[in-house]
Amino acid sequence: MEISGVNVFYIVPIMVFGPVVFFVLFKAIGIQTLFTLNDDQKELQRKSRALETALDIETAKSARYKKATLTPIKIAFQSILYVPFLLFIGYFSSYPSYQYAPENSAQIKLSLTLLGERKIPCTVRSVGEQSDLKPNMRTAKNCSRERNPVRVVFALDGKEVFNKSANPAGLRDDGPSSFYQTFIVPEGKHQLTVSIFNGDETIAIENFSHSIVLSSGQAIALTHSAKEGIVIH
Length: 233
Hints:
alpha+beta; 4-stranded mixed beta sheet; 4-stranded antiparallel beta sheet
């Protein structure tokens, strides 16, 4: 059967389902906006839908990582796990007792920072030599930066207990030489002697000798300053 030359089997489905499809497109998808909204309104609606989608995603994430409610059973189970660990830490924070130095003893700390002599002695520039230099380099003396190592000898009650040499610090060997050592000594009176040598020289450039009485548990430090030399703290 045909209507105006078109088979009825093609016309009937279109007449039945056509309005339904158009209604879905018009209401659910928003095809009506093609007829009622201008370009600015369409862009605003697109951004609004994108924002709603982003909010839905964030809400889903928040729900996923929502903090679980603690129940008495959970608290009791966590206590069973944590209490032994806390007791273990608490015990070993105080026991067994540790004594750094034996009873009836004291400490002597050798902490020296020494600047060695220059390897090449400074020379005096003449007025003519200074005038040939740039204004910011016109100094009366010409000194090299490299310095010699320093050697320290420490004697306790007449017995040598420390004898070491240290190179100067710095990429150009122009920094100080550093020494650090701790000695445990019996309480009582002691004679301290420190000798400082420049490089491999056998004659000390500085000597220090001092008698001191140390009590049990006392700690002293021997340091050095350019003005006072060896100082006891």
